[in-house]
Amino acid sequence: MGLRYSQCLDPDGVDNDFPDHPVHSKQVFCAHPCYDGFGYGSSEVEDDDEDCDTESRFPVFYARGPTTRFLYSHSPRFMASSSTSSRSKPLYRKTSKYNKNGIAITYGCGQCLTHLSSSNQIISDQYTGKTGDALLINSVVNVVLGEPEVREMTSGLYTVCDIKCHQCHKLLGWKYIKSHQASQKFKEQRYILEINNMKVVA
């Protein structure tokens, strides 16, 4: 497998709530952990309701050169809804399992530990995936998208696609592309990460 660069989340810069800030503040690409001993460095990049699967402004981060095709930072525009428009304390600040001393934690792939998202991106933890409990997440990095398909879930019909780790291709969850019912439109362009498929990495 060739060298693939992953977008790394900065644990010191993820304590901001999601509508107003990107998923991380340091825009750094670093080599996958398996290359740590081989002298590959990192390079900074400049900025120019519950479902069960039955089967602000976010910048897009770019890398110069051929690595771009390996990098995915899907960044939906913030869409107001009954579950996200409130300015009350965000979930990760309310629950100690989603923060370390009040600071958001970073999630990585359960298999290769490539960074995926941070707890300040959690919209809801009241979801269920194929492997158990899951999180509705506002923004993720370092994933590749599968083919869109229509799925029937407990809250209705959706057009979704699977999301996989761009390093090891482990299945992580899915992305909501389109909701076929008006009451669930807030899920569009957001993600389900299954808890059993990821680990806390920072």
TrEMBL record:
<dbReference type="Pfam" id="PF03226">
    <property type="entry name" value="Yippee-Mis18"/>
</dbReference>
<keyword id="KW-0862">Zinc</keyword>
<dbReference type="InterPro" id="IPR039058">
    <property type="entry name" value="Yippee_fam"/>
</dbReference>
<protein>
    <submittedName>
        <fullName>Protein yippee-like MOH1</fullName>
    </submittedName>
</protein>
<comment type="similarity">
    <text>Belongs to the yippee family.</text>
</comment>
<dbReference type="InterPro" id="IPR004910">
    <property type="entry name" value="Yippee/Mis18/Cereblon"/>
</dbReference>
<feature type="domain" description="Yippee">
    <location>
        <begin position="105"/>
        <end position="202"/>
    </location>
</feature>
<dbReference type="InterPro" id="IPR034751">
    <property type="entry name" value="Yippee"/>
</dbReference>
<dbReference type="GO" id="GO:0046872">
    <property type="term" value="F:metal ion binding"/>
</dbReference>
<keyword id="KW-0479">Metal-binding</keyword>
